[in-house]
Amino acid sequence: MGLPDSEILHLVTAISRELVCLHESDGTYIYVSPNSENIIGYKAEELVGKNPYDYFHPDEKRLIQERSHQPLLRGDENIHTTFRFLHKNGNYIWLQSDNRLTIHPTTGKKYLHTSSRDISEKIDTEANLALSERRFNTLFHDSPIGLVLTGKHGYIDETNDSFANFLGYKSFEIIGKHFSEISADEELEKNLKYRDEVQKGIIDNYSIEKQYLHKSGKKVWAFTTVTVLRDEMGHPIHYLAQIVDINERKKTEKLLLENNDRLRSITNSVLTQNKQLQAYNQIISHHLRAPVSNLRSLLDLMKVTDNLEEIKEFENHLDEVTVTLETVLSELISTLRIQNPDNYKPEPVQISQSFSNVIQLLKGELKDKEVEIQSDFSGRESIFFSKEYLDTIFLHLLSNSIRYAHPDRKLRISVESFQIGSQTAISFSDNGTGIDLERYGDQIFQLKKTFHRHISGKGLGLFLIKYKIESAGGKIEVRSKPGEGATFLMYFPDGREII
């Protein structure tokens, strides 16, 4: 046997989350569902005969009257209202109500039917969310630090004026752009690498120093920290980037590096000059003192003899000593002359043209020796250097290769240029007799040093080459083994930064 309809209605309304009420046309409660205590704290019997206007928030009574109560009595249907209602505990709660007019079929009397639910938690959540959004917007847009919010595909959803001004834009001009459109090309790969790690969940944030593209086209430096915002499943939905302008710091760093380079160059120059002074002292001590001493001895001997044959022999010795003295003085003058800064006149120099000029000067010797030469200057065609210096460098290197060619094989020379960072490098290699660097490595570029007893040499060429290159801020290295030839690597900076 089934339950009576009245009991079914009571059970259903008792467990429902909806507060169902029937009102007189003035609002007085006629019926209140038994679940009222769970929703508004009052038992049904406490409300029957009472008017809900006694429980409405004072600020909303008039609105309810005008926007819900009166329209219902005029025949409007299904009016929805949201209002505050005084809970029995003394606090106001938010109710959302569906209201409609009901007319008795026999008497024609008007009644009001309401179905209400507690939405206080929803209202509080929305209020907190709105407050949070207001706070976020205030912090976001008023922040002195550049802030950018991008979607998971990298398109900019929001930015503040600080970042827009940093790049010379208005905020609306940046929104909708892909971050790659405002990033310098060389920074993209690094940025994408980090983003890939974020998407894979390896990291949640990262920081990099990167360059952005200013609206004017110039590149500007910033320290960027990117934080990922994920959904409930852990998938990235947004990226928040904080961008700090570090242009001034980068300028300072560059200036410090330049000053360090200049200081290093000055230090190297002082060290080189000290070594050169030692070399000059050696020339004066050994190479000049001996001829001068011989001259004095010969002159003293000539004073004490009347023998014509002896005098003739002394005169021959005088000629030999004089030639030796002239040679030493000439070499000393040459080394002093190249140190005069007025002699260094840098200009754009075609490397291939300079090399060809020297080839023509040595054409006869190269042909007689059947020298094979390979050259490739496509890696870097020109340098900012002294044309006279470069010609002299090639002349000394080619002359040395010919002089120290291996007797058992045809001489082969290979020359090429290439770029290393901001420097131009020239490699000069031969398959000659080579140099014992383990024995002579620390003397290779010193003045008046020769390393092949069976071959005559002045020991001046490599010294001059090193000085000419270092005078422009460059450097020279040598790689060699006895019997296997030698390779000279010469590095030339952008001379316009040195001058």
Automatic annotation (TrEMBL):
> Which residue ranges does the record assign to the PAC domain?
206-258
Give the UniProt keywords, A-Z. Answer: Kinase, Phosphoprotein, Transferase
Identify the EC number(s).
2.7.13.3
Kindly list the GO molecular function terms attached to this UniProt entry: protein histidine kinase activity
Database matches in InterPro entries: HATPase_C_sf, HATPase_dom, His_kinase_dom, PAC, PAS, PAS-assoc_C, PAS-like_dom_sf, PAS_fold_3
Cited Gene3D superfamilies: Histidine kinase-like ATPase, C-terminal domain, PAS domain
Q: Which Pfam families match?
A: HATPase_c, PAS_3, PAS_9
Identify which top EC class this enzyme belongs to.
Answer: transferase
Tell me the ranges covered by the Histidine kinase domain, including all copies: 283-496
Which residues does the UniProt record annotate as the domain PAS?
24-76, 132-177
Protein name, as recorded: histidine kinase
Please give the organism. Leptospira soteropolitanensis
Q: What is the lineage of its organism?
A: Bacteria, Pseudomonadati, Spirochaetota, Spirochaetia, Leptospirales
